[in-house]
Amino acid sequence: IVLTQSPDILSLSPGERATVSCRASQSVSDRNLAWYQHKPGQAPRLLIYGASNRATGIPDRFSGSGSGIEFTLTISSLEPEDFALYYCQQYGRLPYTFGQGTKVEIK
Amino acid sequence: QMQLQESGPGLVKPSETLSLACAVSGASLINSTYYWGWVRQPPGKGLEWIANIYYRGNTFYNPSLKSRVTISVDTSKRRLSLTLSAVTAADTAVYFCASSLRMGDDFWSGYDYWGQGILVTVSS
Fold first, then answer.
1. Which strands sit side by side in the sheet containing B69-74, from one edge to the other?
2. Interacting residues of B24 by C-beta distance below 8 A, sequence separation 6+
3. Residue in B closest to A102 by C-alpha
4. Which of B47, B62, B111 sits opposite A95 (nearest CB)?
5. How many CB atoms lie within 10 A of CB B48?
6. How far are the Cα atoms of A51, A64, A71, B101 from residue A30, in angstroms, in the given order?
């Protein structure tokens, strides 16, 4: 399953809303779709699993939605620490696959 | 709190075998509530899933690497391992070990714990 994220780069200011899309080439169970935040030199951080469940300790400004082939990660109000790379991942069908990543950068 | 820590050579010669270890603390490698995996990130590129292993020893591999890769666990050493044979420059990457937690029947969390990653360079 190929996951295509859009946009590749999102230029926003702190306090703005960020919306990242993830489109799958085939239907993905919403139980098996995750979102990660990744900063250079760090391990990826699980934000959302099962399409809409926040992982432990993740602030509620992060939310996930979607089903079928269209999924969305929303950051309701960007904090300075949220500027990073974001990846979606499907883990329902082998081989597990990641999207190409979306960079959320400071405008 | 679970912790994972990768170790291994930072430099491997082309055609040789890469062997990586991941020390696991805070959880049992044979606990049915987890599965374990490896993910890599080539320089300047995105994340690529490599392999998973479940508590009963079931293994699953990325077909693009399947003929060259082996994932295993050593419960006595509390260690997850990865071997990748016949490496080329295309295998240069940061390699991460990670774990996924069972949230319910056939419902998993995605990779919720990760090691910090280890950079492996393939070069003569």
1. B3-7, B18-25, B79-84, B69-74
2. B2, B3, B4, B36, B78, B79, B80, B99
3. B46
4. B62
5. 18
6. 5, 10, 9, 16
Cβ separation A32–B108 shorter than 8 A: yes
Whether the CB-CB separation of B56 and B45 falls below 8 Å is answered with no
Asked if A72 and A22 touch (Cβ cutoff 8 Å), the reply is yes
Interface contact flag, B112 A32, Cβ < 8 Å = no
Q: How far is B64 from chain A (nearest CA, A)?
A: 9
Q: Give the β-pairing of B34-41 and B18-25.
A: unpaired
Tens digits of residue pLDDT in B60-102: 999 999 899 999 998 888 999 999 999 999 999 999 999 999 8
B95 touches chain A (CB under 8 A): no
Distance between CA atoms of residues A71 and A5, nearest Å: 9
Spans in chain A with pLDDT lower than 50:
none
Query: What residues of B are in contact with residue A94 (Cβ under 8 Å)?
Result: 60
> Which tokens is A107 given?
């405008």
pLDDT at B71: 97
